[in-house]
Amino acid sequence: MGTSRLRVMALDDDEGDIELLRRNLEMLPQYDIELAALSRPGELLERIQAEEVDVILLDYMLGRATGLDVLRQLRAAGNLTPVVMLTGQGDEHLAVELMRAGATDYLSKARLSPESLGQALRNALRIGRLERQAVLAEEKLRLAAKVFDNALEGVAVTDADANILSVNPAFTAVTGYTEAEVLGKNPRMLGSGFHNREFYRNLWDELLTVGQWKGEIWNTAKSGNTFLMWQTISAVKNDKGRITHYVSVFFDITERKKHEENVRHQAYHDALTGLPNRRLFHDRLTMALLQARREREMLAVMFLDLDHFKEINDTFGHDGGDLLLQEVATRLQKCIRQGDTLSRFGGDEFVLLLPKIKSTRNAVLFAEKVVKALKMPLAMAGRQIGVTASIGISLFPKDGDDPGALVKKADQAMYSAKQKGRDDLHLAGN
Question: Is residue 122 one of the residues assigned to a domain?
Answer without folding.
Answer: no
